[in-house]
Task: structure prediction
Amino acid sequence: MSAFIETERLTLRPWQAPDAPHALAIYGAPSVTRWLVPALASLGTSAAMRSTLLRWRDEDENSSGCAGHWAVETREDAELVGGLSLQYAPPGGESLTIAWVLAPSSWGNGYAAEAGDALIRWALHEQGETEVFAIVQPDNARAAATAERIGMEWVTELGYLQQGRYQVYRIRHGDLAYRE
Result:
């Protein structure tokens, strides 16, 4: 199950079914959906989002292919501002990947980097992972900048996959020492 993680301004917590309308507002925003994989880009109703949140909860509890899905809310007023996940790629593989999504109204506040940094530290320190990857579409400048702010370094391009080309960023446990 996804752990509760707190940062100075944010709480990362497991998704709950009542989050569906707020999650849909985030994952359904056109400026967000353009970067989502096709399975998430097709969510169009609160019921579909609720079903996805329940599936994520089941994955968190029962799957070795997923380390967790988190809702991101502000500590000050518990406003839901985004979501993060840690999943193994390919499914069942050994490469742990982080993904983040923020409500467009929350862009520019540093929330993605703050939450991503906390989640990576949790994975490396608490879960014993040795490295975490981010897979970013090359024209997603915001995601690439966030990966770099977290301390991730570009390592390669995956070439053309089903959904297009992707840039791969990585941070290793040893990289954290240089930033602390």
